[in-house]
Write a structure and sequence with these properties.
Strand content: 15-25%
Strand order of the largest sheet: 5-2-1-6-7-9-8
Oligomer: single chain
Radius of gyration: 27 Å
Number of helices: 16
CATH architecture of the largest domain: 3-Layer(aba) Sandwich
CATH superfamily of the largest domain: Glycogen Phosphorylase B
CATH class of the largest domain: Alpha Beta
Shape: elongated
CATH topology of the largest domain: Rossmann fold
Mean pLDDT: 88
Structural class: alpha/beta
Number of domains: 3
Low-confidence stretches: 278-287, 504-508
Length: 508
């Protein structure tokens, strides 16, 4: 028996917390939350019959009379339900399970963490909880769930390490009969790789993924729901572990990763690289980089640096994998756009310095000198403000917020020229044969474009803060240009340099 009545027991949710994120994205109910929710974004639910637990006041987000009555919530209104050490207290556990199951969307998860009768005193034995109404084990709960609905059993683990005396089960709500994928054989050689970030970050990671796959690893990619779209069909990814932004608070990520690392034969964390930590995650720096170290590593090529972290010797290369349906759509879209020379202009990136303030004179010159060209502008909805003023020009196709990420990336292959700041779209085009003009800001030519093909990379002139590593730590210190009020690095890449880089006669 692991449980010892003489020892103070910690909060049960803390013992299982790090196993929950992959199953508890979106709207989550924590039923019987007690003194604390497992995660801040959960909605804590409790009846507060015990006003204090372990000396702490019970203050749930929602107070209910009984855990088997969730009538204030509609059917299929939540992405997940989590409950720890509650079901054994219910007079009718099947009734409670049906009610919890009712509010879960199809494809959502029921996560249960419950005391196991082989590890915890049974009812009537010394040390048993007097309020327990059932002795539980994995098989008994599975039998109850057969009365509730159709599901897939994703996790079914007896946990008896340290202070644990419980089992952990995860049921995914399905439309077909019960299945047990948790019993499937595990891959022989596994690797977990972490990369949070934007489109470009994930596309650069594709180079590492390919190398790991060539080394024979079954690859699980930890990333955010939004970021995984550009690598959705990457054949080198076997499993996605998706997290919403801030689902695991920054201050908890180190402990979360420490929990995940032992599950794999190899662990690669690209979100804590020097570049990533210094430039994009200043609030989660694990230590301060001395200037000599900072200069050494931030002057390195990012892809080569990531390969070194992953211990991959392959030559870096980025790839985007469009589906056949996406390729067909792109060819048809190209026909609809018309013209004999297609320019894709990338409006902006994810940071303040990734907007080029000289777009309008560039467009004007382009259309004047190449009559049959077409310019398609791409970006998210926020980019629509940058498209203003070109509503009446039929040769400019304004598509900000209208294409999906994957549609934009598929259309790349149909373009003759791609122009814009260093963004995910530009990274996706890096290996493609069309001409590219990329504006650099936080990254230098050496950092980024050494392996790009048919590319002119323009660095700003007369910009003391270029590249951004010369700033102290944060984007909010970005220096504004006096002419445009935009980032100085972007302002100092003048239109005439772009014009020279195009070389129309050769491009046509």
């Amino acid at each position: 028996m692991v449980w010892k009545h003489s020892e103070v027991q910690e909060d049960e949710s803390s013992k299982i917390r790090w196993e929950l994120p992959q199953y508890t994205r979106g709207k989550v109910l924590d039923i019987g939350c007690g003194q604390s929710k497992a995660y801040p974004h959960f909605v804590g639910v409790d009846n507060c019959i015990d006003n204090k637990l372990f000396g702490s006041q019970v203050e749930p987000d929602v107070k209910i009379d009984s855990a088997d009555d969730l009538s204030q919530w509609k059917d299929e209104s939540h992405d997940a339900v989590y409950s720890s050490h509650l079901l054994e207290h219910m007079a009718d556990p099947v009734k409670a399970l049906r009610e919890w199951w009712r509010v879960i969307k199809f494809g959502g998860h029921l996560c249960l963490y419950l005391p196991d009768e082989s590890l915890y005193p049974k009812i009537g034995e010394f040390g048993a909880n007097p309020d327990h109404k059932h002795n539980l084990n994995q098989s008994k709960v599975i039998d109850w769930m057969r009365e509730v609905g159709s599901w897939e059993l994703l996790r079914n683990e007896l946990r008896s390490q340290d202070s644990e005396y419980s089992f952990f089960q995860v049921f995914r709500k399905a439309r077909t009969a019960q299945t047990f994928p948790c019993d499937d054989p595990k891959p022989v050689k596994t690797c977990g790789i972490v990369r949070y970030g934007a489109i470009g970050d994930l596309l650069q990671t594709s180079s590492v993924l390919a190398g790991l796959k060539r080394q024979g690893y079954h690859v699980t990619l930890y990333t955010t729901a939004k970021a995984h779209e550009p690598v959705l069909h990457d054949p080198n990814i076997d499993v996605f572990y998706l997290q919403d932004k801030d689902q695991v608070p920054n201050s908890w990520l180190g402990t979360f990763w420490a929990n995940e690392k032992p599950k794999f034969d190899k662990w690669v964390n690209l979100s804590e690289s020097v570049e990533g930590t210094f430039l994009t995650l200043p609030d989660r720096m694990s230590h301060q980089w001395p200037k000599s170290v900072k200069d050494k590593y931030l002057d390195a090529n990012y892809l080569e640096f990531m390969h070194a972290i992953a211990e991959i010797d392959d030559v870096p290369h980025v790839r985007h994998y469009a589906t056949e349906a996406e390729k067909v759509w792109a060819r048809n879209e190209r026909k609809k756009i018309g013209g004999d020379y297609l320019v894709m202009y990338v409006l902006s990136g994810s940071s303040v310095h990734k907007v080029w303030p000289h777009m309008d004179p560039f467009f004007a010159a382009m259309l004047l000198n190449k009559k049959r060209c077409r310019i398609v502008t791409v970006g998210d909805l926020s980019g629509q403000i940058l498209e203003q003023g070109w509503e009446k020009e039929p040769r400019v196709k304004r598509r900000a917020g209208k294409y999906t990420v994957r549609q934009t990336l598929a259309l790349l292959e149909q373009c003759d020229l791609v122009v814009g700041p260093e963004t995910g779209v530009m990274n996706a085009a890096s290996y493609m044969p069309m001409r590219k003009i990329v504006f650099l800001s936080h990254s230098s030519n050496n950092n980024l474009t050494r392996d790009w093909v048919n590319t002119v990379a323009l660095e700003p002139t007369n910009t003391p803060c270029f590249p951004c590593r010369k700033l102290i730590y944060a984007w909010d210190q970005c220096v504004q240009g006096p002419e445009t009020g935009m980032a100085l690095c972007a302002e100092n890449i003048k239109p005439d340099r772009v014009w020279q880089a195009i070389e129309f006669k050769k491009a046509a």
